[in-house]
Each structure stands twice: as C-alpha cells, then as structure tokens.
Amino acid sequence: MSYSYPIDSTWSKEEIIDVVNFFSIVEKAYELGVKRDDILIAYTRFKQIIPSKSEEKKLCGKFEKESSYSCYRTVQKAKEKRQGERVKM
C-alpha cells in the first residue's frame, strides 16, 4: 500500500479506527474477497461517522483516486449479495 487514507483530524480516535477499517475492508474486497455482512456493517458505522452524502463522496473519491478501489461499487455489490456470501471485486 503506497497511499494514505483520507482522515479528518476532528474525528475521535475510535472514529478514525472505524473509518480506516471501512477503507481496509474495501481494499480486501478487491484483493481477497470479504463477507458481504462485514462490508455492510463497516459501511453502516462509516455512515454514522459521515452522515453527509457529499462528505462521503468526497472522502471515497479521495480514497479511490489514491487506491483505485471504489467504495461505492463495493457497497453496491455487497447489497446485491445474500447474507453470508462473499464479495470479490
């Protein structure tokens, strides 16, 4: 990994950990595959921290520009899968 995650310095330590966890799960979906439920749980927590759609697009856009991994496409694919299935991008 030769890029950094988009982080807001106003977030608490726990929020930073949860946001990094979400981006990490998106990475794993591309590289190895991840359980659908893990993606959706991490995304739900991400949305608790980043409720604004425009802020979500901004952060995920930065992440995609750095890593080439799409949060949006990963979450959409997870929503299409059934419980217990794996998502491999």
Automatic annotation (TrEMBL):
It comes from the Bacteria. SUPFAM superfamilies: BH2638-like. Pfam families: UPF0223. Belongs to the UPF0223 family. This is UPF0223 protein GH741_04300.
